[in-house]
Amino acid sequence: MLPGANDEPLVRIVTALVDTVSAMVVDGERAGQVSLEDVHLELCFWRTFGNEVTVVVIDLSQPPRQVRAPIAVELPTLVEATVKCARHFLRDVEQHRGDIETELVALEKRLKRLTSAVIEERPRREAPAPWSAVRSATGTVGFSLRDDDGRTLAWNRKTRAGLPPLLFDGELTLADGTHHAGLPFLAMMGLARSAAEGNARIGGQQVPPDQLYLAGLDLCLALRSRNPALGANPYVEALQVRCTDGLMAMRKPVPDTTMATVSPPRSTPGVPLAPIGDVRRVTLQPRWSRPVALGEEGGRILLGKRWAIVHSPHAAHAFTKAGATAFRHLSTRGVAIGEDGDAICATPERLLFYEGRGPTAQWLRDADGGRLGPHLETIDGVLVCPLGRRGVAGFARLSGRELWRFEPPRTQSITFSRVGTRVLVGTDGGTLYGIDAGDGQVRFKVKAGLPVARAPVAVRNRALVVLNRGEHSAIYLCDALSSGDTTPAGAIVWTRELILSSPCAPVWARGHTWLGGARDGRTVLVCLGPRGQVLWEKTIPCDARTLTLLPWEGGVLVADARGAATRVLPDGSAEWVLGSSGDELNRAIPITVRRRTLVVPGPVTRLVQPRGGRVLAELATGPRMLDLVTDAKLTIYVLREPGTLETFVPGTALAVVPSAV
């Protein structure tokens, strides 16, 4: 049934099979799905009435298709075969158990849940009314959809299997009567991919890409009208994004027909970008370069509204947007600085607070000689900063009085972030503390068996926390701020264990969570649903050790320290891939999107169009680059070793198109 699937990791496949069958038996799910990502195969299960289950294999490579005819089996037989398969697998790998102990323990727990479940028949009275939708082919491309057994209603935001509910019958049609019968959603997925290359055909006839994209959007609209929850289905969302991107890529620039007075040329590096539209072509020209006086190696750029601040653990040097020096702080025990320029400098005897570019300190107080910084947060009149790597302290902004200090016991290192007025401190012992910024009281504490690997990521009033030790990782979502008596602060919303090493910082958007890491020598990207369920796992061509993620239009943009990048759509397919641009940087620099232009830091920093992956400009920054940030006007600030801050502004070689379809 599964041609070519010879090298799939059995522990992952057997675990996924047990999970899928268990969800159908225990949770009453009608749909199930097992992904074989190496060969782009999806094993789809659909439970009809009674105890019958239909099994079908879908190949998602180009073009997507059904590999062979569906096979009907009885659910008790499927459960028996799954249990037998899992037990034989556990017996065969017993002598190598030490290598994959964590995975096998999880599999045994899932198997116990399946074997203790009672199989119940589905009554026929649950059958929904048949549904159909038709789009006329007068606009070149049409379709007819038929759902007689309620597949499209089986999807909700808690469902793990996204593809089986979309395997309904129907056909695609052309105005001349040409038609393509089968699974219309799969066919539309393949045609939308081919349309980007101008090679979309139905029945051997070429189809205009714009008409095909419009038909794809109408198909997504019909499905969402049938079941609004399908808007969060990763496959529906990916088709909608692909069709929207295709239409926007086909738009032509609208010429300016208004009367304009031609002004004499100005001695500026380039014409500013228009306030609306997508950048289609751009050059980068140097504006100014300044030496940075930090007194030590390394450094990071902190971009505020008024200044570009280069800071290190013991110094900060700020420049105006025109390149003039604004202020400079240097202290032996650390400098904590924020985006607005407020800074606390620590000496062996004193703490001094500087407000912006003021030449004198606003207050000073005695200190115990401990280390401070380098980050500073101002929360409701309280200055909050880390105490080296061991704790956090809060100071009154007006008087400098130390309001509170928190140093978790038995801790060697901490991570530090904030959600609203709550300071989040994660420890290498696996504990997450939620501290009130006003009084320093611990409002909640979450204990785990793994160290906190990354600084908690704010998700509205909640926080995403990543744990890791070796190849065993976990991620959970918790309430950082209370929402009444029903959801107190510190309550766990969901948690998910994963087999990943070197997990990156997670990102969240539209109810989905993305997390990347290494597994079996590959870089794996995992997408989690609103309840923490694994929607898909895909291998991506980036380095897991220096992975950075950025959510964008329903999917995610991924890059690493070599300058390699890719865009992954909501269904896990790669829209485009960029190879590495040279040697690896000393650290991973986050990617950003400014003016709908993706900036990928690397030995050769590239400006990329997120739709399509076309490179708009390249800037040779070299492997000795320490940091890079971009402001809203697409001005790029580059910090190079041994200490030089350079700026580059967009030039005049660009074209802008309207942002509306």
How is this fold's topology laid out?
Blueprint: H1 10-25, E1 31-36, E2 41-47, E3 52-59, E4 65-66, E5 71-74, H2 75-92, H3 101-115, E6 131-135, E7 141-147, E8 169-174, E9 179-182, H4 184-195, E10 201-202, E11 205-206, H5 209-226, H6 234-250, E12 278-279, E13 284-291, E14 300-303, E15 307-312, E16 315-320, E17 325-330, E18 335-337, E19 343-346, E20 350-354, E21 363-366, E22 377-379, E23 382-387, E24 391-396, E25 402-406, E26 414-419, E27 422-427, E28 431-436, E29 442-447, E30 457-459, E31 462-469, E32 472-479, E33 492-499, E34 507-509, E35 512-519, E36 522-528, E37 534-539, E38 548-552, E39 555-559, E40 565-568, E41 574-578, E42 592-594, E43 597-600, E44 604-608, E45 615-620, E46 625-630, E47 636-640, E48 644-650, E49 656-657
Antiparallel strand pairs: 1-2, 2-3, 3-4, 3-5, 6-7, 7-8, 8-9, 10-11, 12-49, 13-48, 14-15, 15-16, 16-17, 18-19, 19-20, 20-21, 22-23, 23-24, 24-25, 26-27, 27-28, 28-29, 30-31, 31-32, 32-33, 34-35, 35-36, 36-37, 38-39, 39-40, 40-41, 42-43, 43-44, 44-45, 46-47, 47-48
Helix pairs in contact: 1-2, 1-3, 2-3, 4-5, 4-6, 5-6
